[in-house]
Amino acid sequence: MAFLGLAVLFTSVHRAHAYSTYRYFVINHAVVESQKSSDGKPGKIEPRMEAIGNVDLYYTIFGVAAAVACLANGFVFFCRRSEATRVT
After folding, report:
1. Alpha carbons 5 and 67: distance in angstroms, whole number
2. pLDDT of 57-83, one tens digit each?
3. What CA–CA distance (Å, rounded) separates 13 from 35?
4. pTM: predicted TM-score of the whole model, two decimal places
5. Helices and strands, number each (H, E), in the chain
6. Is the pLDDT of residue 9 over 80?
């Protein structure tokens, strides 16, 4: 559970950092907040900045993989441990 919690925490930190970076760019006029794309539709810069590096996907995959590895390790340890304590 700790690995899943860390994955959620790191994803939230990444989103907060992306938003603060977006606001910094808007305040300093590096990015226009209501920008339009070439076809006339409104541009969505904030979600694109969140997707930089595709961290949301990577943190989720790594968190789940680490949790599964820990559960598998515990399962193997307890299964092997019960066999090793048998007296014949």
Report:
1. 10
2. 888 888 899 999 999 998 888 887 555
3. 26
4. 0.63
5. 3, 0
6. yes
Q: Which residue has the tokens 């930190």?
A: 13
List pLDDT tens digits, range 19-48. 888 888 888 888 777 777 677 777 777 777
Mention every residue, 6+ apart, whose C-beta is less than 8 A from residue 52. Answer: 18
Task: Tell me how many domains the chain contains.
Answer: 1
| Rg of the chain on CA atoms, in Å | 22
Q: Are 79 and 30 in contact (CB under 8 A)?
A: no
Residues 6+ apart with CB under 8 A from 33: 26, 45
Boundaries of domain holding 29: 2-84
Rounded CA-CA distance 15/19 in Å is 6
Q: Tokens 């590895």 belong to which residue? A: 69
